[in-house]
Amino acid sequence: MPPRRSLVKKEESVDLFLAFDDGIDWSQVSETQFDAQPDAQLQTQSQTQVETQTTLIGGRSVAKLPRSFASPPARTISAESGSSTQTNDSVKTLVVDDEDVDYKALLEGAENIDWDNWDTDDDNDIITTPRKLKSPSKSKKFTPVKPKNLRGIAGDFQKVIVEVAETEERRIVVLRDVWSDTLLEKGDVVNIIGDWDGSITGTPSITISSKENLLIHHPDYLISATTLSDSAVCPRRPLISNLVRSTSNTRPSSLWGHILHEVVESCLSENRWDQKYIDDEIEEVIQGSLLDLLRIEKTIEEATEEVKNRASGLKEFSKRYIGKTPKPDAGVDVARAKNNERSLVAISQVLDVEEEIWSPAHGLKGKLDASITAVIESQEAPVSDRGQVKKKTFSGPMPFEIKTGDERYRGIQYRAQTMLYTLLMSERYGYQVDEGLLYYTQSEEPIKVTPSRNEIQALIVARNDIVYHMAKKAKDLTKKVEVCKFEPTTEHLPDVIEDERTCSMCYGLDTCMLYRKAVERVEDTTSPIHGLYEKKTGHLTESQCEFFRKWEALISLEEQDLYRFKKELWTMGAEEREAHGRCFSSMIMDESYKPIKPELNDPGKIHSFSYRFTKRDFHLPMLSKSGFQASDSLLNGHMSVGDAIAVSVEPDLLAIAKGYITGLTPEEVTIGVDHKLDPQDLADRTRLRSGGKALYDDVVEFRIDKDELSTGLARMRYNLAALFYAEGDARLLELIVDLRPPVFNTQYDELLDSPHQAPALLEISKPLNSSQRLAMERVLDAEDYALVLGMPGTGKTTVIVALIKTLVNLGKTVFLTSYTHSAVDNILLKLKVDADFGILRIGNLDKIHPDVVCYTLSAMGTATTMEQLEHQVMTPPVVAGTCLSTDQKAGLEVSLFRLLSEKHEDHVVDLTHQYRMNEDIMHLSNTLIYKGRLVCGSEEVAKRCLEIPSHQFIDDIHLKPDDKCDRVSCWLEYLLSPSAKAVFVDTDQVPGYDTRVGDLVQNQVEAELVYQFAETLIGCGIREEQIGVVTLYRQQIKLLSHLLIDRKGIEILTADRSQGRDKDCIIISMVRSNIEGQIGDLMKDWRRLNVSLTRARSKLVIIGSRKTLQGDELLGKFFGIMDEKKWVLALEKDAHRVHPSLSSKKPNRPFKRAVGDISPTRSPENTPRRPSKKSKVANFSDQGGLLKGRNLLRDLINDST
Questions:
Q1: How far apart are CA 787 and CA 906, in angstroms?
Q2: Quick one: which of 939, 942, 935, 944 has its CA closest to 770?
Q3: Nearest Cα to 575, choosing from 5, 1033, 1154?
Q4: Which of 16, 214, 541, 744 is deepest in the core (most CB within 10 A)?
Q5: pLDDT digits 0-9 by tens, 418-449
Q6: Where is the segment annotated Disordered (predicted)?
Q7: What secondary structure letter does DSSP report for 737?
């Protein structure tokens, strides 16, 4: 089996650096050496990373670099060069700078170059037979490259010197014609597609001009073909549509088109075109679209009539165009056909439908309606009566694009889209795809789209311009964050086209004008669109624009992190990404797996197909040389159940299926995906691409990558932008942006005076204390909004439940939302006890608590009529679901609650009486966070403890022959005591060091201690449901979940997911333990830590390393309290081994080593890492607890529930 290769390849793939500079002594350069066309600029045709904005000034090239951008880290691909006969080279390069280039040597012989061969010429030759793309003889995966110092040369043409990363071989790239305007900058990545030769001084070189070769700028930015095709009308629109995405703008025409698309694709897949099948498919798809029909207020009958009218020609289409060979009447519309030329077509095979293809080589992606094999017969009539008809037959793969609208509208965009799909299919199928079919269902003939060189060039140039602006914004944000001077970026969009008719009809008009006003700060009173501009933005004030600029930039900053991880799918090899915990490499499909049919149908899922994979049981020779170690356990890493994934087959088949992880064990992963995975078919395709060679000796190896979904941020940006639209909600704009004070009335008093409403209100509020009743009063009196600040255990859930019941009694509808599913479901669980009204729970079934699944649409049964659906959706007065959330960074940690409460402190109602924690547990957060404001709601709550039903289990443990514990000092006995209500278990003497799993952290000793204590509690009669385990680290969650896999009742949660939950006993694993005292950022996040500390009712056990944790000032205060109360239990050496009968290391319970730990003498949990520089700790004042300001306290408390 040959060595594995990267997912991106062409015939020759070489690591290169690209240099550009104008710091040359031009007086020493002979003018005869630069007798070139004035606008020539260097270009290459291979995978290259470059960005340089250049113009010609005074007969020489001068760099005009974009303003203050930091270059992103470059990743390159390297491989051995192919033969000189290859037709499709690919070289990845990086723009750099140097002062040590021998320019004399480089310029030697330049005067002998035949520049006439570089003249611009239109070349529209059409290739009519499929040309197979040759595979490289060898390639390696992407690796980071450190820029070398080089200097470029220039004259009347643009020239860039590049250097091969590994061999330091220098190459030259020349950019000419339209490519001379490419905006490139030192440090950028480009991909060069074309042939290299030695025409310039013997140095390998390439020219990119209107005649030949392509340059792909920032190929790691994958632009969708649909988005790019819009640039034909407006270069600004693709970026606008990428920034802001709404899912609520369903229009009838869009829905009819979507339904018909599904019907045609089904007919193609099944090769069924009889009228009954078509009608049945229409009915089935409409049944699955009832929610959309409800949104647009259309009936099933109206939808059926509309779609059938649009599908009336499908049967006739199949008769003419479906078959092995073209039929006489199967003509196609050929855009550039000669007068005497006619083409016939037959669709002989359907390769795939809804095929999504990512092409890092071209920086493109797209979802093809259908991938087909077509037979096209071109007939050229004779020019005279005695001549013969010339026939030429083509057969090969091509895209089949289906459009349900009128050809007169968006015709240019649809043709461009089809052209781009030919590039994507070339990348996926390994053949030169030069034609595509565009079919309008309302026309009689499909259109044969044959892209010319000029058309492909124009689209790639437009794509390069789009990604230039995208990268420019990203680098601007990165640089400002690095220098700790974060400001909104102001220039990242092309100019407005200023065409009133085109702009007024654009779907992105509101967003475009908003960015022009708020972000770009354009003043316009004279342009052709100034009236439209004023209409859409005249209502906005400068402070409102400033608000939008700030929050839009913060969302963009969050977006950069997601994109950075996503592009690793095509810039990293499987093993390298696996070392970072974001990929499973060398996975083999378990073909014996039979998926279990789900009990409930979830319409939100894309799990059309389910598969199970295991690790290959041996490593190939090449893999051992990669420098990366594969993890022993699939639990090691960032990937968890519910995560989005992409499935690939290296080296060529990138993201052939997408879906989610549905099951995960140390040895197996189960996934649900949107496409069928046939190992034999995939093996055949890889064999085709490699010239008939079998890339896999026995079975196909897959890689499964974590896929970062960023569409939520585009929707979040839409929610932000919608506040500022001219047709938006002016009241919300005033309240949230202008911070107008909320208005209150006297409805609560009026209800108490009402003989009809007062009894129910008094009954519901009877169990509430005075502060909870005040909160209810404030909410019922609110005309805008009310702010209720509840500290942990103070009964926020109780108040919310009472409010929902009261509002429903008053005939109101309620939408219940939170950032986490657990917080929403916890309230629904309490409502479920006695609520006598309907509830609709929306969201992914995998994330919803099993006991509230009964409130989902899936559990209600599939609606077959609009009336049934309307009853299910519109009747329940309470709808519950989660809202979008982001990581807390660079300002995004400021919640809406905090924003409003800081401005309107007088309108906040505090809840201070807590009913969850006993007084010992409450003392921790009350002292550290709340400055003594928390009060136990009753004496019973204050004295609560965990009584052990039986000690027989622990007695039996000590009687075991292999037990090594001195019972007098047994750590388990100590923790079982009812008086041990809050205990820190110090592991320093054990010891129990944390270990790395890629870039994640886990602690196996702590996990073992948690396991043994949990097993002891259960053995002594405590129910599993009374126990909760909390940790801040996802890798520790997976480790603990595996150890406690048989204890289904024990909840194992992150701090975020534990919000709204409480247990009689909470065990916290702190994880961080190392001799250098590094605790990381998570442990410094006291909002999360405070949530963890306040989940326990009767017993709180915290396991960790005191030496490591106390270095932080906040945690140091925590240990001060624990010492004062004598709540610290120091474990003895090897405490986790003194009870062998409790050990998790039993048969059928493997205990895996962590990645990167190769110590032959010590177990990984007892192996300290090399000391490093001690991290700085935060500086906080001792006055009044950890929080001095009321505003920060409010936000912290609100996030801690």
A1: 10
A2: 935
A3: 5
A4: 16
A5: 999 999 999 888 888 999 999 998 888 899 99
A6: 61-90, 1138-1183
A7: I
